[in-house]
Amino acid sequence: MKSERERMDMIAAYNDIGSYRGAAAMCGVDHKTVKRAVLGIAARPGSTTRRHNYDVVSDIVAERVAGTTARISAKRLLPEARVAGYTGSARNFRRLVARAKRTWRASHPRGRRPGVWAPGEVLVIDWGTEAGLHIFCAVLAFSRFRFVRFATDEKAATTFEMLARCFEALGAVPKVVLADRMGCLRAGIVANIVVPTPAYVRFAVHYGFRPDFCQGYDPESKGIVEHLVGYAKLDLVVPQDLSAGDLAAANESAATWCDEVNSLRHTETCAVPAERLEAERPLLGPLPTLRPSFARAVARKVDKLSCVRFGSARYSVPTKLIGREVELQVIGAEVRVVHFGEVVASHDLVGPGEASVKDEHYGGPRRRGGPRPRTAAEKAICNLGEVGEAFIKGAAAAGVAKLGSELEELAGLEAAHGRDALVGALARAIEFSRFRAGDVRSILAAGAGAPRPAKAGQALVIDLPKVPTRPISDYATDRGEAS
Question: Are 425 and 444 in contact (CB under 8 A)?
Fold first, then answer.
């Protein structure tokens, strides 16, 4: 009989594949043996288990195959097997290694999910090099609209220029720009997360897209543009013998080539990219009126009012930046405050002597002096939450002279009726401007019987079916008689 472990392996292989012969090929046994193991049929009396000369090293081979993700060769494993006691032929040992690799790969399938691109979502970009030319390639993922241009370098300013031209060719801006981990766009990597440069962040904010980067050591995540780079090299640069000597002519050829390939039917989408772009363009963002200018930022120190001054005007920033150095960028009629590459505040440009203050920079809107309870009754009402504070403020505004004694009486109602009932009664009293303890007691006594006035709703308009009508003369009794 096979060991219990081998029997369980055969049962597991059969459950995964669904056929005796397929499971037998994985486990290296006869399909009848797999059938007996699955059906629980014991071997015939007197039968013996067939042994192999490589059984002594089967576990070692399986362990080494799993440790190398099924990439180790039988030639490299054979000396170790000899030392472990294997005395068979090299050919038989290769069969063992091949079967171990098949078994491991069957339980560790290597697959990837296909890319599912939403309209107006992702633009993938990358650089390539051929014949001294630096090739900038971009693909709008959903429509497969392709953009190719040439440059003499791959610096950040050149990349921004190429992106600006690509957006102008699209006539809109996508939501996300997915790039390789380019050194010109990367400020650093923290926990395998790419930190973009401040200049790239300013460029992205100006155009209104979110910069994103591919995963490390994962070329499949940007295969859509890698294919375009190779396609441009083989179909554009090499056949036309383009060179860096005449960059203008090369870019003219690239524009003509893009118009040609974008007007042909794409093999993956079975649609014309140029036509698909027209349907996708309403979902893209609008182009800014001007290209961004990367002038030197103005440094300012945040004062004690959590503001910075520019042009004799004040602009608020988050209070956590008090005493810190920040950068001010003026783009059109907008003032942006940047701290370590992050836009922490954005304001519309105001005139001299004015101030632009946002409540979220100070933790919310300005709070006026609220109730400060001292007595036990005051604390009991204020502990009811916003309803208790609103009742005290409303009663004070209504001129309740003996508010202190009224609160003492109200505090005693909580023990009798419960917190929730008292809060509901106070809310109803505030709604109808009844700020006496007797009014609240009456509301509690009425309970659910208190009327709940509500605003009038909309008129109910129903289209009734039309029915045939008859004139009143049809109901006359003397219709057949002469008048």
Answer: yes
Q: Is 50 exceeded by the pLDDT of residue 1?
A: no
Which pLDDT score is estimated for 5? Answer: 77
Contact 329, 335 (CB under 8 A): yes
Using the CB atoms, write b or e for 71-92: b if 16+ within 10 Å.
ebebeebbeebeeeebebeeee
Structural domain contains residue 459: no
What whole-number distance in Å separates Cα of residue 174 and Cα of residue 122? 6
B/e letters for 244-254, b = 16+ CB within 10 Å, e = fewer, are eeebeebbebb
Cβ atoms of residues 306 and 322 within 8 Å: yes
Residue 287 has pLDDT above 50, yes or no: yes
The pLDDT tens digits for 350-403 are: 888 999 999 889 888 876 667 788 888 888 888 888 888 888 888 888 888 888
**Are residues 275 and 126 part of one domain?**
yes
Q: Name the token pair of 166.
A: 């690509």
Last residue of a domain, one of 253, 283, 313: 283
**Among residues 136, 62, 135, which one has the least CA distance to residue 105?**
62
State how far the Cα of 94 lies from the Cα of 90, in Å rounded to an integer.
6
Same domain, 140 and 210: yes
**Residues 346, 349, 350, 352: is their CA dihedral positive or negative?**
positive
90 and 41 co-located in one domain:
yes
470 within some domain: no
Does residue 442 have a pLDDT over 80? yes
- 335 within domain boundaries: yes
* 13 and 142 housed in the same domain: no
User: What total of structural domains would you count in the chain?
Assistant: 4
Cα separation, 101 vs 114, in Å, equals 26
Q: Are residues 71 and 218 in the same domain?
A: no
The reported pTM is: 0.46
Residue 18 lies in a domain: yes
CATH code, 187: 3.30.420.10
Domain containing 269 equals: 122-283
Task: Quote the strand ranges of 152-294, DSSP E.
Answer: 176-179, 186-190, 193-196, 210-213
Residues 279, 303, single domain; the answer is no
Closest of 58, 64, 50, 49 to residue 93, by C-alpha: 58
The mean-pLDDT minimum among 56-70, 72-86, 468-482 falls in 468-482
pLDDT digits 0-9 by tens, 3-33: 777 888 888 888 888 888 888 888 888 888 8
Lowest mean pLDDT among 161-175, 229-243, 302-316: 229-243
**352 and 383: one domain?**
no
Average the pLDDT over 240-269 and give the result: 86
User: How many angstroms separate the first and last alpha carbons of the chain?
Assistant: 117
Strands 342-348 and 176-179: unpaired
